[in-house]
Please model this.
Amino acid sequence: MAWNRVGHDIMRAVTDPYALYCIALGHAHDAAQLRERTVDGRLTLVITTLAMVSASGLAGCGERCGRAHPADITPSLRELADADGAELRSLTPPQAAALGALYRTQTAAGYLGDTVLAACGAALVAHAENIPLLTTPRARYCYVTGRPASLATRIEIDSVPDAGDHP
Ligand SMILES: [Zn+2]
Model:
């Protein structure tokens, strides 16, 4: 419940692919609040192209949440990307080069894949802009070598819906 602890004072944050998946669907309480705040512009949610690509390919939130996940979340992602508070971001060339180096340390440690790459990219943007990185418990493996994690303040949003929450 890290998000609840930090509260609603965050005005700007970048999201990794797992958090983006949850926010786009309003999947669990924290994500639903973040989506609402992005839609009405109270929160500027920075979304990298890589996170968008990676989240589009996720089959679910990755937790054993017991909820049905839509077969295609791209409509929800597009809707979120069009929200007042959404800010789409491509990496600058120096960021892209730094991302390659960062990803190399992850692959050397055995952590591969588009979600890892996208999470590293989001961490770089968080570092460059000095804003927090929204993530979920499921995404911890993306930061396990410590290098991406050291770049940014991570806020783990609760990705498992409570009983009574809407998915
Ligand atoms: Zn789920």
Q: What stands out?
A: The longest strand covers residues 44-48. The radius of gyration is 15 Å. Residues 10-156 form a domain with the Rossmann fold fold (CATH 3.40.50.1010). The pocket of zinc ion is lined by residues 27, 60-61, 63, 65, 67, 69 (CB under 6 Å).
